[in-house]
Specification:
178 residues, alpha/beta, Rossmann fold, 3-stranded antiparallel beta sheet, globular, binds inosinic acid, binds magnesium ion
Length: 178
């Protein structure tokens, strides 16, 4: 285990099972359809690459890099698009893939932006969610699991760009960020 990790919250095996459950539901719901997976950089990269290998309907992927302008003050639609999609999404089944939904501010802005481009459908998959932190009402169509208000890293999630490559999700030792 990495020396900065206090406790492992989800092991590699647990994550594999969690992603499998999400993929099963997606496979059922999109049977006979095609999906465009839209990964939000950078946190979703590990989740999206594992998820896509468990999806058995035709799917393609694209990426977007966004940042919200602020925290509590951000209004819907106020999102800074640092790198936009490469694909047109009009008429497509778009499934946004995110690592974790915290306040929901980023996602509510992204949903509004992509919704304005007339996709055939627009849904959201997130590995984790911290419902106690929510400021925007967001429907997560496919969720791995809810967690408490803890700061977690690994499996794509970072603290100051570190720990993304850990194969598990763990809680950082407080002394690392104090
Ligand atoms: P939101 O707009 O507050 O929902 O922001 C969600 C984003 O904050 C996620 O995509 C992550 O990049 C980041 N984030 C929130 N909680 C955590 C955490 O526990 N660990 C790592 N990143 C987090
Ligand atoms: Mg993120």
């Amino acid at each position: 285990m990495n020396k900065d990790i206090q406790e492992i919250l989800f092991s590699e095996d647990e994550l594999d099972a969690m992603v499998g459950r999400v993929a099963d539901k997606i496979n059922r719901d999109y049977s006979g359809e095609e999906i465009l997976l839209v990964g939000l950089l950078k946190g979703s990269v590990v989740f999206i690459t594992d998820l896509m290998r468990k999806i058995n309907v035709p799917c393609s992927i694209d990426f977007m890099l966004v940042s919200s302008y602020g925290r509590s003050t951000v209004s819907s639609g106020m999102v800074n698009v640092k790198m936009d999609l490469n694909e047109e999404i009009e008429g497509k089944n778009v499934l946004i893939v995110e690592d974790i939904i915290d306040s929901g501010n980023t996602l509510s802005a992204v949903l509004e932006l992509l919704g304005s481009r007339n996709p055939k459908s627009l849904k959201l998959a997130s590995l984790l969610s911290k419902p106690s932190r929510r400021q925007k009402d967001i429907t997560i169509d496919y969720l791995g699991t809810e967690i408490e208000d803890l700061f977690v890293v690994g499996y794509g999630l970072d603290y100051a760009e570190k720990y993304r490559s850990l194969p598990y999700i763990g809680i950082l030792k407080p002394e690392v960020y104090m």
